[in-house]
Structure prediction request, 132 residues.
Amino acid sequence: MKEIEGERIFIEDSGLFVEALGGFPGVYSAYVSKTIGFKGVLRLMKGEENRKAYFKSIVCLKLKGEIKIFGGEVESRIAEKARGKGGFGYDPIFIPKGSEKTFAEAPEIKNIVSHRKSAIEDMRDFLEYNLK
Prediction:
């Protein structure tokens, strides 16, 4: 991280990890989304019975010269075909555990179980506790 004296700084990155694809696209999720998109992931998954996947978000915070790491994860399965019009990225093929709808079909579910929300809330809780 860039050194910024007297400042707090945080960065976040997220990825989709598909078990049957050996964790791919993983750290390449943004690139894969821009190139082959979720339709390409569906093509790679064609005929695959194991549809397990998860979204993972990592937030790194630099505070007073120390780096703290927070994470969030949401388990899912990859849909057989794209469904829904909401969201972005992989939302049309991502079915969170306990649901039958994709994130694109049910953004209200995404807002509750979001991997990014979980990581950011952990960071917020840390800051509230440590910056009193």
Notes: The first strand starts at residue 9 and ends at 18. The chain has one domain: 9-130.
